[in-house]
Design brief:
This protein is of the alpha/beta class. The protein has one domain: Maf protein (Alpha-Beta Complex). Helices cover 30% and strands 23% of the residues. The chain is built from five helices and seven strands, in the order E-H-E-H-E-H-E-E-E-E-H-H. The chain is globular and about 50 Å long.
């Protein structure tokens, strides 16, 4: 494999994945560069949605495709917002809306344990019956109030005890080493090297 399509329009993800796969001489192209539409995410899990996105992109382009699906799981909310993390407060909501809804849902809760979860799916072709799946998570807890200006999504509320700070307080280099996506990508890289 010398080229794959990233089933995402996120420039940050494209740059991060391109850097990681560079030593293997794999060129990463965005789905937008090839005019691939985003499929409907009808899966009930992160893994199902990652597979749906990768399969769709591989079928449309005829090239290997990599997709991720990720989000926040909160124990006291039975894993919510989960696969709906980006649209927890509604379809066209902002990160601030999602954070406000999360704080409201956890009002009075003592158990604030949570994790960021990432599932990656790599399809060698559109009908690949055995996609390569790599998953990882970053454990933490939901703070009582936001802190920090970096990151996005729930990062201002996501406290990481091991780092003694909120995810939004981490510098980019540190976050790219310990994040759920970085850990899943590292597993993928190890699999591809083997």
């Amino acid at each position: 494999m010398n080229k794959l399509v990233l089933a995402s329009g996120n420039r940050g993800k494209l740059d991060e994945i391109s850097r990681l796969l560079e030593p293997l001489q794999i060129e990463v192209v965005s789905m937008q560069a090839l005019n691939v539409s985003e499929p409907e995410e009808t899966g009930l899990t992160f893994v199902e949605n990652a597979i749906l996105k990768a399969r769709h992109t591989a079928q449309v382009t005829g090239l290997p495709a990599l997709a991720d699906d990720s989000g926040l799981e909160v124990d006291a909310l039975q894993g919510q917002p989960g696969i709906y993390s980006a649209r927890y407060a509604g379809i066209s909501c902002s990160d601030s809306d999602n954070n406000a809804k999360l704080l409201q849902a956890l009002d009075g809760q003592e158990n604030r344990s949570a994790r960021y979860y990432c599932a990656l799916a790599l399809m060698e072709h559109g009908d690949d019956p055995t996609p390569l799946i790599c998953t990882a998570s970053l454990n933490g807890e939901i703070a009582l109030s936001p802190k920090g200006t970096g990151g996005f999504g729930y990062d201002p509320l996501f406290y990481i005890p091991e780092q003694r700070c909120h995810a939004a307080e981490l510098n980019k280099e540190k976050k790219n080493k310990i994040s759920h996506r970085a850990l899943a990508l590292q597993k993928l890289l190890n699999e591809l090297r083997n």
